[in-house]
Each structure stands twice: as structure tokens, then as C-alpha cells.
Amino acid sequence: MKNxxxxxxxxLVLGSGLAGLxxxxxxxxxxxxxxxxxxxxxxxxxxxxxQGGVACVIDNNDTFAEHVQDTLYAGAGLCDEKAVQxxxxxxxxxxxxxxxxxxxxxxxxxxxxxxxxSDYDLGREGGHxxxxxxxxxxxxxxxxxxxxIAKCREFKNIEFFEYHFAIDLIVTKRLNIPGExxxxxxxxxxxxxxxxxxxxxxxxxxxxxGAGKVYLYTSNPDIACGAGIAMGxxxxxxxxxxxxxxxxxxxxxxxxxxxxxxxxxxxxxxxxLKCLNEKNELVEFMDKYHPMKSLAPRDVVARAxxxxxxxxxxxxxxxxxxxxxxxxxxxxxxxxxxxxxxxxVNMAKDPIxxxxxxxxxxxxxxxxxxxxxxIIGLYAAGECACTGLHGANRLAxxxxxxxxxxxxxxxxxxxxxxxxxAATQLDSKEIPPWISGNATNSDEIVILSHNWDEIRxxxxxxxxxxxxxxxxxxxxxRIKLIRKEIDKYYWDFIITSDxxxxxxxxxxxxxxxxxxxMRHESRGLHYxxxxxxxxxxxxxxxxxxxxxx
Length: 549
Known about the structure:
The protein has 549 residues and is an alpha+beta fold. The chain folds into 3 domains: 2-55 and 137-244 and 362-425, 3-Layer(bba) Sandwich (FAD/NAD(P)-binding domain); 249-356, Flavocytochrome C3, Chain A, domain 1, CATH 3.90.700.10; 440-529, Methane Monooxygenase Hydroxylase, Chain G, domain 1 (Up-down Bundle). It has helices at residues 18-28, 64-74, 81-100, 140-153, 227-235, 264-268, 298-312, 326-332, 334-342, 398-423, 445-462, 469-492, 497-518, and strands at residues 2-3, 6-14, 34-38, 54-55, 122-123, 133-134, 158-162, 164-171, 183-190, 196-206, 239-240, 245-252, 272-276, 282-284, 317-320, 352-361, 364-366, 378-380, 385-386, 434-435, 544-545. Strands 2, 3, 7, 8, 9, 10 and 18 form a 7-stranded mixed β-sheet that branches. It has a 5-stranded antiparallel β-sheet with strand order 12-16-15-13-14, with helices on one face. Strands 19-17-11-21 form a 4-stranded mixed β-sheet. α3 (81-100) packs across α10 (398-423).
């Protein structure tokens, strides 16, 4: 079967979260044509799930230097300090732009403080020395996404392709075209028609979000399958620091609701982590692990919870914010309060049962702060990219800030270099359309679901919060076999969305395993019991993997 439809745009954006829509908006101001590809509805993304907010220095009692220092400390010596400085200092500008788009952040007046009507209510989260988190209640991501979508709809030169799956990037090296590697666009599956479209563009933005679904337990939605990282790797981009997977310490523990996140902002407002002792009494435990106690960085808190659960044999620990007034909690955390209440927990009266779960990828496609990847015409932003901001552990609420800043800086880089980029683009006649060859339809769905389940289970058991070299080697042996099965399946059968996601999950899983095996130390989010946690003698280098084309 041959899918001959070829569509041409000036810019192609893969993903409709904060990084993708921000990139599209900045690019749209030029008047050039833009295609935004999204797996499902336009608002089905990780951004929509973000509760906490955006970390930004907008208060006179705070400074860029303090935000930078908090970020570097959380990143355990692996942050790119220049990238951190640039992103933090650009923060107020992108926040101003976001507010001008119509984003409504919570003010003190919204919370009943009559003398502070127009002042923004700044939250505090783990690892932050100051209150600097702008938020919209506890639905910050949904509010930002709403404002971005509304603004994007105003631009006639932005075209949305909903229910379209990016299969692979089209690059010159894989087409055996001599010269420096250049991205030409992407092959995209229309899940409604079943046809594969060839979308050609002068620039391609990879903004596909994270990879939480690589693990059995995650706070991420089903779409988070690591597509951007996997496609970037297959295209020849350098992948950095994939061993650093952030496990959010506090996911609601409930049989009916397995992925609802209890924002770190709850701890910022005074919630304390507790566990049941042998007398069935709730007692604090974080003082044993870090001076900041329940407000310690996420890597410390997640490991502490994991250790306490194993030590006590309990299924969860508890987050206690019963010291706060019920009305205040309803105003500050409306969505969390409502969800907990539906699960039989009144935050003002009952401790919240919580467990850790896979949450955020600190590594990804290695980029500069302007989103450049080293492949001509290819940019990456958001969770699928690695600018060096997060280092070995992301400081809470820095991710939305990074997505905003990189989207802005990448559009500026494109504006300065568009003529040169356009001059290197190939004519559409030189780019082959997708060809399915002798592939046939498959009804062996059980194979896909079995492989998916097996990957997620051994990644949780062997490549999770607590790792050993033996467990990592066991995971490597399994993923090699499964990758072979998937590759055969991929070429023998007609492409489907399930097969695309399984292929990407397997690729990302192997990148995480390989990166973890390459790092012979425990640092930040990567804890290997066979290696010490080093301080002054740390090897401050990134873990880099690049596929030979």
C-alpha cells in the first residue's frame, strides 16, 4: 500500500501542550503556515494535568540568584548553569506574555485577602527557598492550555491535525542523502482514515511531552509514551541523561484512581508526610532524611517514602494537612479537595494516602536553550528535550517555565535563520512518501498488549526508584528480546497507533536502561545501590547516546 498524500507547511509542530502551542503561537506571528499534530483532542496533553504552577521570580523578596541556586542544588551538580541563568532570567518576560494571552493566575484577592486584591498568590514547593510559584488554583496547566488554545484559534495560518500520530521524522541521513543531517518533516498516521501522510516543513518542532507510560505506575495520561525522544533518537539526535526519571512522591493511593497527583504545593502550604508505626500511630519521618523535611527535593522525598513503605511493610504513607481550615483548602486546592472527597478523604480532617509514581523525564533530546538539536531544521522543547536546566533532578514547577522560554527563544532563532533554513529544504519530489510494502493487517492484539504490560512491569521493578546493576542488566536482557519482536511486527504488519506507541515505549525503555548502566554513581534521581552517592568527586558529565545512521 502506498500513501501518496504529501502536505507542505513552513513549520511543523508535533504536540499540543505548552511547548507545542507556545511554539506555534510565536511562529504564527510571521504569517507563515504552521501545522500542529496531536494524538487526540488538542487539549489532551501533560500540560493540562499540571497542578502546581510556574516557577518565576516576580516578588521583590526573591531574586534570580536565589532561583538559580535552588535549581542548581536540586540538580545535584549536573545542571548547565548558563542554561539555568538564561531560563530563569527570561521568566518574567514569558509570564507577562502568558498573562497578556488571557491566562488567569490566582491572586490573593481570590483567596479572600481584601487588602491584596491584585497581588498574585505565590506558592512554595519542595526545594524552593522562597514562594515563587504562580498558579491558577490547582488546575494551572488546564488554565494555561485553555488560554493558549483560544489564542491559537485566532490565527488562520495555524492548522490543527487532531487524531494524528507522528510515526517518524524524515531526515536526510536516513534517506542516504549526502551532507549534514537535515530534518525535512515527518510521516504522520491519520487514525481516522488509517492513511499515512507525508508532512514536509522547513522547520520541525518536537514537543511530544514525556514518557510516564513506560512505567507501570505514573501520574501521566495515556498519551505520554515518549514519542518525541524515540523519534529524535531514530533520526540521529543526541539523547542525554535518560537515567534521571523523576518519581513524584505523592500520587493518591486508591484502587479506583491510580494516577491522580497530589500537588507538591500541598506540602508547600504546610502538609507533612507521615507513616504508620508499629503502634498504628501516624508519625513524621522526613526529618530522618533531609533538613527541609517534607519540603525536601523530590528525589529525596520519593526515595524516603519508598524506603519507609518497604521498612514498615505498608502499602502507602500519608500526607497530613489537617492543620488547615477546610474553606481555605477548598479555595486553594479545589480540584484536589473534590477528588479526595470523592474517594472518601476530607483533606481538612483525614490524612491523604499517597505513593510515588513515574512523573517526569529530566533527560531527552539534547538541545541548547534555543531548542536547536544539532540536526538542521529540527527543534525540541518541553519534557522531550534536555536543555540542562534540570540536571539530575528537576526543581518543582521549573518545567512549565522551561517550555515557555525555549518556545520563545526557538522562534527567535528561526526568525533570524529562516532564509538559510528554507534554502536547505529539499523539493517535495525528492522526499519519498510512506510505503507499506507487503505489510498486512494483524489481529494479534494480544502480542502488543502483552509486550506493553511486560515492559512497564519490569521497568517499575528493575529500573525504578531503587536500582542495582543486576536489576538493570536483567532489564537490558528483556528489552533486547522485546525490541526484536516489536521490530519484526513493525515491518510485517500495517501500522496502527498501538504499534507506534509500543515501539516508542520500547525504544525509550532501552534508552533509560542503557543510560542507567552507563552512570557509575548515585546522583539525583538515579540511585544505584551498587554505587556511592558522590559529592566533591562527582564526574559532572552528561550521559549521551546517539544512534549511528
